[in-house]
Amino acid sequence: MANTATDQAFVEFERVQKSYDGEILVVKDLNLSMPKGEFLTMLGPSGSGKTTCLMMLAGFETATHGEIKLDGRPINNIPPHKRGIGMVFQNYALFPHMTVAENLSFPLEVRKVGKSEREEKIMRALGMVQMQDFAGRRPAQLSGGQQQRIALARALVFEPELVLMDEPLGALDKQLRETLQFEITRLAHDLGITTVYVTHDQTEALTMSDRVAVFDDGRIQQLAPPDQLYEEPENSFVAQFIGENNTLMGKISKITGDQCEVTLDDGEIIDAKPVNVTEVGQRTRVSIRPERVEMNKERLSPDAHTLKAEVLEFIYMGDIFRTRLRVAGNDDFVIKTRNAPDQVRLTPGTQIDIGWLPQDCRALDA
Amino acid sequence: MAEVMQAADGTPLKRSLARALRRQKMRALALIAPLLLFVLITFIVPIASMLFRSVENDIVANTLPYTVEALADWDATGTDLPPAPVYEAMFYDMFLASEAKRHTRLGTRLNYETTGMSSLFRQSGRNMDDIADLSYEPLEDLDDAWDDGETWYALFNTRGVSDTTLLDDQRKRVARLSGAAADAEINFAPDAEVSALLPLAAREYTAWAVFVATQNNRDPAERDPWESVAPALVTDLQRADLSGYVGPAADMLRAAQQANLPVPDFTQEFGAMDEDWASLEPWQTIQTHSGTYTSGYFLNAIDAQKTPDGVAWQPEEKQILLTLFGRTIWMSLLITFSCIALGYPIAWLLANLPMRQANVLLILVLLPFWTSLLVRTSAWKVMLQQQGVINDVLVWIGLVADDGRLIMINNQFGTIVAMTHILLPFMILPMYSVMQTIPPSYLRAAKSLGATNWTAFWRVYFPQSVPGIGAGSILVFILSIGYYITPEIVGGTKGVFISNRIAFHISSSLNWGLAAALGTILLAAVLVLYWAYDKIVGIDNVKLG
Question: Is the pLDDT reported for residue B273 higher than 70?
C-alpha cells in the first residue's frame, strides 16, 4: 500500500530501518518511492519518524538497515555535501556573519562557480523569492518570513534536483505561512524540483502536496493524494489525524459487498462502508466527517438507517454552523452545516434525526 | 517647531516621566551603593593614590625648601659649584631634617637617581652639629649665659608685637618636613623687633620652637635650642645695627658683635665633610629633581633618566625594564596563543558532546580552579626540573642522555608551560559558552549546500566562534600580562615578568614611585591593547556567554 515503486522512481527507500540506541526502532521498515518532480509531504505527530527519514535522505543520519536510492544510485555511503540536495531548515540556518548575497554565494563558491555566473545566479534566485533588494542585508536585519525566503533561495540557487524542507514554516504566523505555502508550491512546480516536505500541520500538507505520507510509530500509515487521504482514510489513525472526525464504536453485524451494517454499542444499527474490516462480529470504529452528516431525510435513500440525536450546543462560526449533538451515547458528535439562507439554526434540546450516505461512513479498525 | 508632548495635567511629558522614574532610579542606586562604596574605598582609591606616587615628588622641596630656592638660579650645566648661599641654606635645611630624622628618606629618594646620595645624606646629617659648634662654642666661651635656653627664649619671645608671618611660615616648614600637622598651641611667638634685627636666627629659633612644641610636646621656654641658632646669630650679627636695641640680652649681643665671632665657611666645611659636596653631581641631582611633580619615575621605568642636560638613557648596565616590558608582552602573547590552540578543541568537544559526558569534561576543565595556585605551580616545578618527572622519564626511555637533561624550568619555557596550564580555563569557558549558542543546523546547512567538513567549519563555524576566542584572549592576555606568582616561582631570571619587578620595588627596594610608574605603564598598555582590539575586532564581538 505504501509502496508505489515505478521504474522511473527518483527517490527510493527500500526496507529502511533506523535505531539510535539499538533498542527502539524509530523508523520501522520504510518503503517509499517518488517520481521526479513530485511534491511529497511527510506528515505525522512528533516522534513519528518523519524528520529522521528526512535526515537519512540528506545524509546527516545513516540508515541502520535498508537502502536509500537517489536517481537509481544507492547513497548510503555518500557524504551529505556530495549528494547535491538542497535543504531548508526550520530555524532557517542562515549564516549570521554573512550577508544575504554571501549566504547565497556560499554553495556556488564551494562548487567553484565563476564570479559573474555566481552573481547572475544569486540575482535570479533572489528574484524567484522577490528579495532582490535585500542582497546586502544581514539575516538579523530581516523578518522571519524574509529569512525563510532567503533560506529557500539559498537551497535553490545551486539548482538541486531534490529539495528537502524540514518544517520550514513552523516559526511563522498564520497569514505569512499561507502566503509562503503558495509560493513554495508554485516555485517547486515551476522549476520542476522534486520536493520532500516535512510538517506536522495537516492543512499545510493537504494544500501543498501532490502526495502525503502520513507517519505514525515509525511507519507510513497511508500514502495518497490529499483528497483521497481526507475522504478515504485507510485506517482509524489517518481518519483521526487528518481533519475533524466523528467516531462511533460498534460491531459489524452484516457485510454485503462494499456495504455493511454496524451495530453500535447502544444497539442502534447504521450503514457503513467496510474499509479494513473483513468479518461479521469484528469490533469497529466508524468514522463520519462532520460535513457529510445529513439532517434532511429527503436526501437519503428511503431504506437508510437514521439515528436519533439531541442538540447540545450550537456554535455560530460565520461561514458555517457547528452543532454538537448527543448520538448513541456520544456527546462529542459534531455536524457542520453551511451558512445558507434556508439553513435552520438548531436550538439546544431539540431532538432530530440524522443519517448519511453509506459510502461517507467508513468502518475502520477499532 | 515640534510641539512639546504634555502629560494629562499639562506638565511636559519628559519631566513627568523623569519624576516617575526617579524613585526607581534612587532605589536601584541604593541597591548598588554598598558594593559601589566597597569598591571605591578598597579598590579605586588605593589604586589611584598608588598611581599618584608615580609623579609625586614633593619630598625634595619639603625637606630642603631653602636649598631648592637658592639653587633655582644656579646653572647646573656649567662647571661652577653653587654659590655660598646654597651651602648656607643646605646647612640649615639639613640640620632641621637630621633633627627630624627625615634626611635619610630624602637620601634614599635621590639615590634612585644618583648612586651614593643615600650614604652622603646619612653621613652629612651626623656632621651638622660639628659645623654648628664652630659658632656655638666661641659664643659660649664669650658668655656662659648663651648656654642657657632661657637667654634665647627671652631674646626671641614676643614683647608685645609678634611676627606672625614668620611663625606661620615655620609651622608650614615643620609640617611639610615631618609630614604631620604643626598647628598646636605654642608657648612662643617671635618678637617682631628681634626678627627684623636678627632674621636668620629668629627663623631658626622659631623653627626649633615649633618643632619641639608640636612634634615633641615640650615647652620651648624650658628647653635649650639646637646649636644651629649659633651660626645663624653670628651671621646676623655681622650686619645687624644694634644701636637702637634695648631689649633682653642687649649687652650680650653687643659683646658678641664686638668679638666679631667667625661665621663657618659652609662651602669649605661641606667639602671637608665629604668631597662629594665639592663636586657638581649632588647639586645637579637636587636641582634636577626639585619639582613637586616629576616625570623621573616614568623615565626610569623606560630605562631613561632626567639629567641637567635633559632626558638621557640610563647607563647600559642599568637598562632592564624595556626588555622586561617587551618580554612580558611577547610571552603573554605566546601564552594566549597556546591557550587558544589547546583550548579550542576542548571547548568544541564540550559544546558538542551529549550533556552527561560534557559535564564530566567540564569538571576536568574546572579542576585546576579548585586546587591552590601555589600547589599547581609547585607541581610544575616537580614535573619540569632537571631531576624531575619528565626528565626522568625521557632518560629512562633513552631519548635524552643522563648528562644532557633538558632545562625546562627557571626559564621562559617553564613560565609559558605553567601559565598556559593555569590560564587555560579562562580561555575554554568563554569559548565554550559561545560555541554552545551556535546551533548544529548551521554546520548541517553548510554541508547540505555542498561544503566539505573543513570548509563548513572554517567558513561557517569558526567565524561564529571568534567572539569566544576574543573574550578568552582578552581575559588570558590581561591576566598573564600582570601575572606574578608563577613567573616568580618557575621563571628563574630569564622568565620573570614586569610584575615581578614591580613587586621587587614595592617590597624590597621600596622605590614605590618607580613601582607605581611601572604599574601605570602596564595599565596603559592594557588599555591601549583593549582599544586596538576594539578597533580591529570590535568589542561587540566579545561574548562571555
Answer: yes
pLDDT mean by block of 10 residues, chain A; 366 residues? 56 91 88 92 90 91 90 90 90 92 94 92 91 91 91 92 90 86 90 92 90 91 92 89 89 86 86 85 89 82 82 90 88 89 86 86 86
Q: Which residues lie closer than 8 Å to B240 by C-beta, 6 or more apart? A: B197, B198, B253, B257
Phi, psi of B19 (to 5 degrees): -65, -40
The continuous run of DSSP H or E covering B104 comes out as helix B103-111
Contacting residues of B for A83, CB less than 8 Å apart: 448
| Partner-chain contact A87 B456, CB within 8 Å | no
What does the angle CA A92 – CA A95 – CA A96 come to, to the nearest 5 degrees?
A: 100
| 3-state secondary structure labels for all residues of B340-405 | HHHHHHHHHHHHHCCHHHHHHHHHHHHHHHHCCHHHHHHHHHHHHCCCCHHHHHHHHCCCCCHHHC
Q: How confident is the model at residue B209 (pLDDT cuts 50, 70, 90)?
A: very high
- Residue B314 belongs to a domain: no
Q: Do B444 and A84 touch (CB under 8 A)?
A: no
Mean pLDDT confidence for B176-195:
88
Nearest to A110 among B444, B450, B463 (CB): B450
* Residue A88: closest C-alpha in chain B: B445
Query: Which residue on chain B is closest to A87 by alpha carbon?
Result: B448
CB atoms within 10 A of CB A208: 23
Q: Hey, are the CB atoms on B442 and A95 less than 8 Å from each other?
A: yes
- CATH of segment(s) A245-365: 2.40.50.100
What's the CATH number for A9-236? 3.40.50.300
Q: Are residues B355 and B434 in the same domain?
A: yes
Residues B111-122 pLDDT 10s: 988 889 999 999
ipTM, 2 dp: 0.81
Among the partner residues B450, B451, B464, nearest to A97 by beta-carbon distance? B464
Strands A194-199 and A162-166 come out as parallel
Answer yes or no: do B414 and B493 share one domain: yes
Clarify whether residues B102 and B237 are in a common domain: yes
Size of interface A-B (CB pairs under 8 A): 66
Contact A158 B455 (CB under 8 A): no
CA distance B301 to B112: 12
Which residue of chain B is at minimal alpha-carbon distance from A85? B448
Task: Give the rounded percent of residues in chain B with a pLDDT score beyond 70.
Answer: 98
Chain A interface with B: residues with Cβ < 8 Å: 58-60, 79-87, 89, 91, 93, 95-97, 106-107, 110-111, 154-155, 158, 164
Query: B86 pLDDT band (50/70/90 cuts)?
Result: very high
Q: What pTM does this model have?
A: 0.76
Residue A154: closest CA among chain B residues belongs to which residue? B449
* B433 min Cα distance to partner chain A (Å): 17
Is residue A256 a contact partner of residue A358, using CB atoms and an 8 Å limit?
A: no
Q: For chain A, what are the domain ranges? A: 9-236, 245-365
